[in-house]
Amino acid sequence: MPFRLLIPLGLVCVLLPLHHGAPGPDGTAPDPAHYRNHMVVPTLRPVSAPFSRLVFGFWPPTLFLIPRTRERVKAMFYHAYDSYLENAFPYDELRPLTCDGHDTWGSFSLTLIDALDTLLILGNTSEFQRVVEVLQDNVDFDIDVNASVFETNIRVVGGLLSAHLLSKKAGVEVEAGWPCSGPLLRMAEEAARKLLPVSDALAFQTPTGMPYGTVNLLHGVNPGETPVTCTAGIGTFIVEFATLSSLTGDPVFEDVARVALMRLWESRSDIGLVGNHIDVLTGKWVAQDAGIGAGVDSYFEYLVKGAILLQDKKLMAMFLEYNKAIRNYTHFDDWYLWVQMYKGTVSMPVFQSLEAYWPGLQSLIGDIDNAMRTFLNYYTVWKQFGGLPEFYNIPQGYTVEKREGYPLRPELIESAMYLYRATGDPTLLELGRDAVESIEKISKVECGFATIKDLRDHKLDNRMESFFLAETVKYLYLLFHPNNFIHNNGSTFDSVMTPHGECILGAGGYIFNTEAHPIDPAALHCCRRLKEEQWEVEDLMREFYSLKESRARARRKTMRSGPWEPPAEPGTLSSPENHDQPRGKQPAKQRTPLLSCPSQPFTSKLALLGQVFLDSS
Ligand code: DMJ
């Protein structure tokens, strides 16, 4: 019998259904049993906390739990943040066991950049304002450092863009032209340009258009740099780069991100799966494991988030195709395994901590039932260890050697936050409360919160990743803060005058990049309007002249008379027809619809944190 068929059988042998308690008494939360009917979970460890389930089962959790836990989360943030400032700044990260700092992903004071928008979400506008000044004075990207293209994008570019868009709300005195200009936007742009193909030595300059994984910020790609990049390292740019293009007016960012996405799409196997690592020079897959976790994860995330942010049907269609293949080949009893990308045979029956973002992503496409079932599987692993081990062997129901650590990752909490917005199910608050207790109990030390090296004995590592303050604490806080401005459903908004006209901001529908930096989708339209018109005019001019050329060619063909005249350069105003014409006026008459305001067809209708409004709804 093929191994692939043995796995589900093996799961059935070692897994048994879990019985959970009753739902909340107000009848608003769905009955968790609804999700659990088909659920199987490991039985090797008893599932704890029956008392808490009783409490959650019979008390409205909003009464005490929400504000109390929220305050605990806030205290957690400041314990870590103050310690970083005191012991580690200007280094990238805090070393919580030795109470000092070190550079990890570059030399950017990374924790400060990553934590900046969390300060505002926690309501601390004065510290936000101070940090904006500090970053301008201290961060320099002209440095001889080999940096990860992916991490620099999601943490530095994403963090700065989000903070830039939130700075007015945080009381920063913004310059004229904001949000289409500003110091943080300039910094984000500078960092992103270090990754672009403006010379032969930069990350995206490859024959395939897929970027290298590492770039030296001063010298470009090192000679001899490996051309092997993971899938997520290629497909995780569209959110930040399309935002940059919209705000700055330079389409190059969005263009390179789209090319990289298309190349990945074209490289999928016949059964519709992508592998883990690819050679960006040859386009050949080097690691052929297909799954939803490490090395691939945020590629899928950015197809969905890019689709929502840009209202782009094609990106969503790509994701839905992948989703089908993923469900066909990797999905077993609401777990997701790893399979060979060409054959679909199981290669690793393992759940990875990084995969726990998937239920949150499913909620964004409205697949709440599947999301909850998978979430509850993952939650049983959390309860087994008080955290999520990096790898968990599903048939064995235990950790995998050398992958027993928990570096305080956000993914399961992130999914809880999305799903709580979508369902109001109190089980999701229960996970949040458990996470706060575990993290405080196991990982809190005098100088911050330490990575858990081994969840079996709670040994610690001397590291606090910047995503702890960017993501883990932020998602926890948002889970317990229903009235946070981030959760705005469009009932309030701010109106800003820009050089391009009036601009609506802060109405909600924020899209979190994969490092949990919220991007206000409305902002993309503020600066885009005029620039889009310019781009459309240029396109129209190009079309106009190529049309003219083909008509002339047709005429020459039929009449075979008269000398051939070369067309004017597309996009220039040198042709006689364009003299004295205001730029764009003439083509506008011909193709009026292209110059009208951008309409919002597809799911019109932003998906708001777990709520999807379809065309038909
Ligand atoms: C973060 O840097 C991002 O969420 C990334 O997409 C995956 N890894 C970490 C958090 O676990």
UniProtKB/TrEMBL annotation:
<comment type="similarity">
    <text>Belongs to the glycosyl hydrolase 47 family.</text>
</comment>
<keyword id="KW-0325">Glycoprotein</keyword>
<keyword id="KW-0106">Calcium</keyword>
<keyword id="KW-0326">Glycosidase</keyword>
<feature type="region of interest" description="Disordered">
    <location>
        <begin position="555"/>
        <end position="601"/>
    </location>
</feature>
<feature type="signal peptide">
    <location>
        <begin position="1"/>
        <end position="21"/>
    </location>
</feature>
<dbReference type="GO" id="GO:0004571">
    <property type="term" value="F:mannosyl-oligosaccharide 1,2-alpha-mannosidase activity"/>
</dbReference>
<feature type="active site" description="Proton donor">
    <location>
        <position position="151"/>
    </location>
</feature>
<dbReference type="InterPro" id="IPR044674">
    <property type="entry name" value="EDEM1/2/3"/>
</dbReference>
<keyword id="KW-0256">Endoplasmic reticulum</keyword>
<dbReference type="GO" id="GO:1904154">
    <property type="term" value="P:positive regulation of retrograde protein transport, ER to cytosol"/>
</dbReference>
<protein>
    <recommendedName>
        <fullName>alpha-1,2-Mannosidase</fullName>
        <ecNumber>3.2.1.-</ecNumber>
    </recommendedName>
</protein>
<keyword id="KW-0479">Metal-binding</keyword>
<dbReference type="GO" id="GO:0006986">
    <property type="term" value="P:response to unfolded protein"/>
</dbReference>
<dbReference type="InterPro" id="IPR036026">
    <property type="entry name" value="Seven-hairpin_glycosidases"/>
</dbReference>
<feature type="binding site">
    <location>
        <position position="514"/>
    </location>
    <ligand>
        <name>Ca(2+)</name>
    </ligand>
</feature>
<feature type="active site">
    <location>
        <position position="411"/>
    </location>
</feature>
<dbReference type="InterPro" id="IPR012341">
    <property type="entry name" value="6hp_glycosidase-like_sf"/>
</dbReference>
<keyword id="KW-0732">Signal</keyword>
<dbReference type="InterPro" id="IPR001382">
    <property type="entry name" value="Glyco_hydro_47"/>
</dbReference>
<dbReference type="GO" id="GO:0005509">
    <property type="term" value="F:calcium ion binding"/>
</dbReference>
<dbReference type="GO" id="GO:0016020">
    <property type="term" value="C:membrane"/>
</dbReference>
<feature type="active site">
    <location>
        <position position="297"/>
    </location>
</feature>
<keyword id="KW-0378">Hydrolase</keyword>
<dbReference type="GO" id="GO:1904380">
    <property type="term" value="P:endoplasmic reticulum mannose trimming"/>
</dbReference>
<comment type="function">
    <text>Involved in the endoplasmic reticulum-associated degradation (ERAD) pathway that targets misfolded glycoproteins for degradation in an N-glycan-dependent manner. May initiate ERAD by promoting the first mannose trimming step of ERAD substrates, from Man9GlcNAc2 to Man8GlcNAc2. Seems to recognize and bind to exposed hydrophobic regions in target proteins.</text>
</comment>
<dbReference type="Pfam" id="PF01532">
    <property type="entry name" value="Glyco_hydro_47"/>
</dbReference>
<feature type="active site" description="Proton donor">
    <location>
        <position position="390"/>
    </location>
</feature>
<dbReference type="GO" id="GO:0005975">
    <property type="term" value="P:carbohydrate metabolic process"/>
</dbReference>
<dbReference type="GO" id="GO:0044322">
    <property type="term" value="C:endoplasmic reticulum quality control compartment"/>
</dbReference>
<keyword id="KW-0834">Unfolded protein response</keyword>
